[in-house]
Design brief:
Blueprint lengths: L3 E7 L7 H14 L4 E7 L16 H12 L2 E7 L7 H8 L10 E8 L7 H12 L3 E2 L4 E4 L3 E2 L2 E2 L2 H15 L7
Helix pairs in contact: 1-5
Length: about 180
């Protein structure tokens, strides 16, 4: 292995997006501390459609599920829609094997229209990964629309939060080769 295997599950339906801009800074910061191999799963590009059972998942979806399940670190990143994550993001996790994420470190990240959307980290994302018995990392990252210029993260406070989150996460990650 040449580095930490990181899978990003991106719940944003738009490309480019603020959510992807946030993830790019997270990966860049993490990559400055440990060698990593990152893969990004854009749930809206998978064509989940009416897939409700794992056994019915097309090969592309199965490969994405395995990538998330086998990663050393999962970054769950989503925009906030009406107070929670979008349905397609949840549909992806509905297909993840129930015990595949036990004790897996999960870094939570979200973007929203305003600071009041930050509650999605605690009230929607942590319970979702609690079901899987995953290890949600203590410091989550939220950025609101005003923190960006287009999709470029500008707010130094959010950059600082990313640094804190990533440095904290290192303690929970497996040693890299």
């Amino acid at each position: 292995m040449s580095g930490l295997r990181v899978a990003v599950v991106n719940g944003s339906p738009s490309q480019p997006s603020k959510t992807v801009g946030l993830v790019d800074v997270i990966l860049e910061t993490l990559g400055g501390l440990v060698p990593l191999e990152a893969s990004r799963i854009d749930v809206y590009r998978l064509g989940l459609g009416g897939t409700s059972e794992r056994s019915d998942a097309p090969p592309k979806v199965e490969a994405a599920l395995r990538s998330a399940e086998e990663a050393d670190l999962l970054i769950a990143a989503t925009p906030v829609f009406r107070g929670s994550y979008p349905g397609m993001f949840k549909q992806f996790f509905d297909l993840v094997e129930q015990y595949a994420l036990v004790d897996k470190p999960v870094l939570l990240a979200a973007t929203g229209g305003g600071d009041h959307h930050a509650l999605v980290l605690e009230h929607a994302l942590r319970p979702l990964f609690g079901f899987f018995q995953a290890l949600t990392l203590p410091v989550g990252i939220f950025a609101s629309s005003g923190d960006f210029d287009g999709t470029v993260l500008l707010n130094p406070r959010v950059h600082g939060r990313i640094q804190i989150a990533v440095e904290s996460a290192i303690r929970f990650l497996p040693a890299t080769a």
